[in-house]
């Protein structure tokens, strides 16, 4: 008699290494233990997935959860609750908190705060700066760390590497893929007068223009090549950067965001004002089309939400005093499922961008596919569901989404983390069970 499963998911269409097939999934001790016909198998818990599609757990590799230091905007409990409600099973969190994440102690503090409060699995970026450049080789390998993140242009928080010498030193001091926000600080400073003293939010993409992004991305790739260091260029927003990055796929992986694939200037600024303000900015439809082409052509490796919550009171300050960023971890998957329903994505491409891609570029151990021995992380979706995204559904402390009122086709109906069902039918279940993500290139012992 084989051992009973902790959870079986039966009757669904499951995205396996063989593609989308009719197959049940059995999870035991947190790992996928069987894929096949399990309708009569003994199990402590069952999910009837008839009519549903079972995907590998969605991994969001760019979120800002604000803890410690700005918990009035978000914290690790509310941020990860939003993740679970949105069908996301693991998140990588950014280092521009207060204090910045720059030391082993800063990382330990985040891991300690996440224990017992995080609804999903998690890892934290180490900020790269002049202050810790010579220690990054050790810091980037600490358990619970997903790698180093560098800001080349100022955004929210104080993390900034403006000059090539420091960036080169950071690139030399480590081997793991390094994540970079590429906007050129010198050009940002030189153009700030365009919006200083007040301007409509629609000027945001003029201030932080295409050249601001392209100059930084070019500088980064020149230095990364000299250092022979792999980089991950975050939230790429321009046609020109995509064309440039297509020539550097041996070294650079590329992220774009659901916001940049869904919204476009000038309409988004007319409708949302500073609620559409983020860095790098939402640009016009020409760039949005180029991002979709880059998704289709395989230049894009990953879609991350860049979940960057700010309160409504903060967003209501007159531009440019209003902070940049918008929540997104909870809407990432509904938006992508809707784009798929509209024919802009296929299911294999969606899975590649949200599970297999994150696994591949960051060398995540045991996640990113539904395969024997992998973590029992599942995102179960109803591809036919017609649903309306509403502020009232958003778990983020910020309490809003730029997609409020939007109808979508496709919705996450269950989130399973290592066999724990943490969300079903828009409700959180059980207790926060998130654990640190493990990385194959830094497994202990
Ligand atoms: O718009 C943004 N907001 N871009 C960033 O790079 C940072 C983020 C935040 O933390 O608010």
Structure description:
This protein folds into 2 domains: 109 residues, Urease, subunit C, domain 1; 305 residues, Metal-dependent hydrolases (TIM Barrel). It is 28% helix and 23% strand. It has 14 helices and 19 strands. Helix 4 packs across helix 7 and helix 7 packs parallel to helix 8. It is globular and about 70 Å long.
Largest sheet: 8 strands, parallel
Give unreliable regions as ranges.
Answer: none
CATH superfamily of the largest domain: Metal-dependent hydrolases
Radius of gyration: 21 Å
- Classify the oligomer: single chain
Brief account:
The chain has 445 residues and is an alpha/beta fold. Helices cover 28% and strands 23% of the residues. An eight-stranded parallel beta sheet has the order 8-9-10-11-12-13-14-15. It has a seven-stranded mixed beta sheet with strand order 3-2-7-16-17-18-19, with helices on one face.
């Amino acid at each position: 008699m084989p051992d009973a499963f902790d959870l079986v998911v039966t009757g669904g269409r499951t995205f396996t290494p063989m593609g989308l097939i009719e197959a049940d999934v059995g999870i035991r001790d947190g790992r996928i233990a069987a894929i096949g016909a399990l309708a009569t198998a003994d199990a402590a818990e069952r999910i009837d997935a008839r009519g549903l599609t079972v995907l590998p757990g969605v991994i969001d590799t760019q979120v800002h959860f604000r803890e410690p230091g700005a918990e009035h905007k978000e914290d690790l409990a509310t941020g990860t609750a939003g993740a679970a409600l949105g069908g996301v099973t693991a998140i990588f969190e950014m280092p521009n908190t207060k204090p910045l994440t720059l030391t082993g102690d800063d990382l330990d503090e985040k891991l300690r705060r996440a224990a017992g409060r995080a609804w999903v699995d998690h890892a934290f970026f180490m900020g790269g700066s002049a202050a810790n450049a010579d220690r990054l080789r050790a810091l980037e390998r600490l358990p619970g760390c997903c790698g180093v993140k560098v800001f080349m242009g100022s955004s929210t928080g104080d993390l900034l590497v403006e000059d090539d010498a420091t960036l080169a030193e950071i690139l030399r001091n480590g081997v793991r893929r390094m994540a970079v926000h590429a906007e050129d600080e010198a050009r940002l400073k030189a153009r700030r007068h365009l919006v200083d003293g007040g301007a409509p939010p629609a000027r945001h993409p003029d201030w932080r223009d295409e050249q601001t992004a392209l100059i930084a991305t070019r500088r980064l790739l020149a230095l990364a090549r000299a250092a022979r260091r792999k980089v991950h260029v975050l939230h790429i927003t321009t046609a020109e950067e995509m064309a440039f990055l297509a020539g550097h796929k041996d070294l650079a992986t590329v992220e774009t965001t659901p916001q940049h694939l869904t919204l476009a200037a000038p309409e988004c600024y007319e409708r949302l004002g500073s609620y559409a303000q983020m860095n790098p900015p939402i640009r016009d439809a020409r760039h949005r089309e180029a991002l979709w082409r880059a998704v289709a052509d395989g230049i894009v490796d990953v879609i991350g939400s860049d979940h960057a919550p700010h309160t409504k009171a903060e967003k209501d300050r007159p531009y440019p005093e209003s902070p940049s960023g918008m929540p997104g971890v909870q809407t990432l998957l509904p938006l992508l499922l809707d784009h798929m329903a509209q024919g802009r994505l296929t299911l294999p491409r969606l899975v590649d961008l949200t599970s297999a891609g994150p696994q591949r570029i960051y060398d995540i151990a045991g996640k990113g596919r539904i395969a024997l021995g992998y973590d029992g992380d599942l995102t179960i979706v109803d591809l036919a569901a017609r649903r309306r995204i509403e502020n009232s559904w958003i778990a983020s402390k910020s309490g809003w989404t730029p997609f409020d009122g939007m109808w979508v086709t496709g919705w996450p109906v269950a989130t399973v983390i290592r066999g724990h069902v943490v969300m079903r039918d828009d409700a959180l279940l059980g207790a926060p069970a998130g654990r640190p993500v493990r990385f194959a290139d830094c497994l202990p012992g």
